[in-house]
Amino acid sequence: MPYIIISVQIRTEHGPTFCGDKDSDVNLMCYLDAVKFQDVGQNFIEYRSPHPPRIIMDKLETVGYKVVSCAGCGQTVIWTLHKD
């Protein structure tokens, strides 16, 4: 999986950081300390890590990912990372 999208709501200094969906690489999610989570009323599963996005991006860089874009949407910040 060459792309990964991570996001955080409201404050970027604190977690949790959303970093995967039900089809994400389980080993990579484990490396990011992310666990599967499903909010009440949601019909989808996501992975959440307790770490702030800076820590997640540092970890992803060590395994070859690079940030290719960033966007803000309301109170959410989203980063797209790619691995060659």
From TrEMBL:
Compartments in which it is found: Cytoplasm, Cytosol; Nucleus membrane
Enumerate the Gene Ontology biological process terms.
negative regulation of biosynthetic process
Question: What GO CC annotations are associated with the protein?
Answer: cytosol; nuclear membrane
Q: Which UniProt keywords apply?
A: Cytoplasm, Hydrolase, Membrane, Nucleus
GO molecular function terms noted in the UniProt entry: GTP cyclohydrolase binding; hydrolase activity
The cross-references to InterPro entries, in alphabetical order and at most eight, read: GFRP_sf, GTP_CycHdrlase_I_reg
Q: What family does this chain come from, according to its entry?
A: Belongs to the GFRP family.
Record-given protein name: GTP cyclohydrolase 1 feedback regulatory protein
| Gene field | GCHFR
